[in-house]
Amino acid sequence: MRYSVYIILTAVLFIGCEGPVPRRPVKINTGSSIKASIERSKKILAHEEKLIQKIIAKDSLQTYLQSASGSWYFYVKKNESDGYTARPDDRVTLTYNVLSFDNDTIYSKDDIGVFNYKVDKQELFPGLRNAVKLLKENETATFLFPSSMGYGYQGDHNKIGVNIPIKSTISLFKIEQQKDSLLNSIN
Question: How far apart are the first and last CA of the chain?
Fold first, then answer.
């Protein structure tokens, strides 16, 4: 009898020590939600680009330029004498505002104030980060940003809603070049 109890206990131990069985996913994601999000973003961008083209067509007084990052802009004040534009790690002093495409003020220059920014080292909305690198000292330009270059699908959690394209007039007053930038501008 003792012998049969040992056999049963040994059998229970071997069966009980199988190890954990991995759980299988209940639903397998095929990436369809990602594909749907991409398609939705493409449609939003196409719509916003049409809005930008309408604004440009109505504004015959200005000559608009397209940036490599996807925004459109025109110079309000251009600096013809200086050729240096801000590079990463440079410090710039600027002011900017944020308007809707209907020219309703969302944030005025006074709301934001004079802003000191270390290029590519501080968080700003993508359009502003790119715009700063297009301007020289003492230049002012007005930019039209699609929502993807503005505050995107999240907005700013305050006055700017989801997927809102914005217009911004940026004045760059000063560029403090860093040592690396000084060396690169000499070469």
Answer: 94
pLDDT in tens, the chain (187 residues): 667 767 776 766 666 666 677 777 776 666 678 888 889 999 999 999 999 999 999 999 999 999 999 999 999 999 988 889 999 999 999 999 999 999 999 999 999 999 999 999 888 899 999 999 999 999 999 999 999 999 998 889 999 999 999 999 999 999 999 876 555 555 4
The CATH number fitting domain 35-186, selected from 3.30.360.20, 3.40.50.280, 3.10.50.40, 1.10.10.10: 3.10.50.40
Q: Using the structure block, give the residue that is written with the tokens 């594909």.
A: 35
Closest listed residue to residue 106, CA positions, set 31, 168, 182: 168
Q: 165 Cβ partners below 8 Å, 6+ apart? A: 48, 51, 52, 101, 144, 145, 146, 147, 150
In 149-179, which positions are buried (b, 16+ CB within 10 angstroms) versus exposed (e)? bbbbeeebeeebeebbbbbbbbbbeebebbe
**Pairing of the two strands 98-99 and 105-107:** antiparallel
- Rounded CA-CA distance 170/153 in Å is 23
Is residue 113 left, alpha or beta, with left meaning phi > 0 and alpha meaning psi from -120 to 50? Answer: left
Rg for the chain, CA atoms, rounded: 28
